[in-house]
What does this fold into?
Amino acid sequence: MRITAVGYAIGKLMQVLAGILLAPLAIGIYDYQHMPLAETISQPEIIGFALASFLCGLFGTILVLTSREGRELQGTKEGYAIVAIGWISLTFWSCIPLFLYFLEQNGVGSFLLSFTDAYFEIMSGYTTTGATILTDIEAVPRSLLLLRALSHWLGGMGIITLAIVVFPSMGVSAYQMFRGEVPGPSKDRLQPRLAQTVSILWGVYGLLTVAETVLLWGGGMGLFEAVCHSFATLATGGFSTENASVAGYHSDYVEWIITLFMYFAGINFLLHFRALRGDFGSMLSNPEFRFYNAVIAVTIVVFTCVLFFGGLDSPETASSQYRHESMTTEDFDAHYQGQAEQVETLYGSFRIASFQALAIITTTGFVTADFDLWPSFLKLFLVLLMFFGGCAGSTGGGMKMVRIMVVLKVAWTSLRKMTQPKLVAPVKLGGEVLPDSRVINVVAFVILFVALTVITAMLMTLFVPDLTTAVACSIATIGNIGPGLAGIGAIENYSWIPIPGKWILVLSMLLGRLEIFTVLVVFRPSVWRK
It folds into this structure.
């Protein structure tokens, strides 16, 4: 491992982040323009943004200058280290404004809790998990809400891929960094130069973001809220500016626009690019795209039918579901009645089913319904969908549709060989025979994903009083989904989880976003030997 090569690249990333942090700083200053200058610059988040931007830029420049000789020495190991260490360090710098805000709110004695909550929230943003510790989102300054939204948008496509665009000469490990950060097992290129491919991805990403912003703004949502929700949607993140998430807007139009763009966000962005150039054949013939649509269609039909014909779970069963913030009988009855009214009509059931199906399958995590009140069959269905995720090359989390397809094909082939021992049936995808190395990689990933989910769930049982919540915490974080069931359900949050539990979930989010191997490789001692 060449430490100077890692230091040079991370220094470049810090320089990019230092500039980005000026955007929420500007919003903060604008919002406090009615105050005297002395009061404005004394606000904790303003101090935080200024301090984070300055220190991040300063130390980034120092790293670049002192590690310049390592610029051309980046290799495979360095690429993985840059991605893993880069995400950890960039989260640290980005959480400073939120940390100072929490510290001012909770008091100096809450130093560890405030830092843990700030780091958790920003890591949740960068990894597009959308798990929040905020109990009153609407009371948070807009500058910090923009920081959350920006962390989503940057993390969705990857801040390292952005750095490759800004600094095309990042080093020879740029492709390895690209492989380590962009979700999915296949990394197709459209152009011979990586910087061109990454520029195309960001171009499509930006175009879809602008389109959704305009549509939401035109539908009555404020411009700031439209930008934040577009950032969260295209990144499949789920941070909202409302306490009730998207349900807080009480607008069918807003829900359908976000549903449509969640669908777009779960598709491989290279397929979007080809479709924008008129090549719809590539998209329609792509086996993963067809499987993605089939899963969505089946889910929406099942959810709609069960909700419309069966309704919610019984009030007695639903009220026994564990919640950290318990409701009074009167509040629960009113809440239950409101949720039941949403699915009384076929259209209402279809709308709720469509939104929540896309929110879970693409791992966006927005909510318009309290699915803890749904029948057990649908709740188990939701948990199963949390493992799927979007397509490879999308911003979605989870295992990815293509891996699910490969594992199903391997299982089917193994079943056939049990009755036909001499059968020669290589695993194919879209008519292409997959090499054994790729199949092994996919199976290994799935095994690790499930194993880490189980280990995390077991660890979380030490910190939460409910088994369902512990399991949901594990799946919702490693799958980068956000809301889960029971104590972290649709109308709950993660603020009550003890500090050690939050750090376990921080690692789980990072493992899920960087697809496990990128992080685990860095922990191997042999990687750090010269």
About this structure: The beta strands are 428-429, 432-433. The first helix runs from residue 3 to 20. The chain has a mean pLDDT of 89. The radius of gyration is 23 Å.
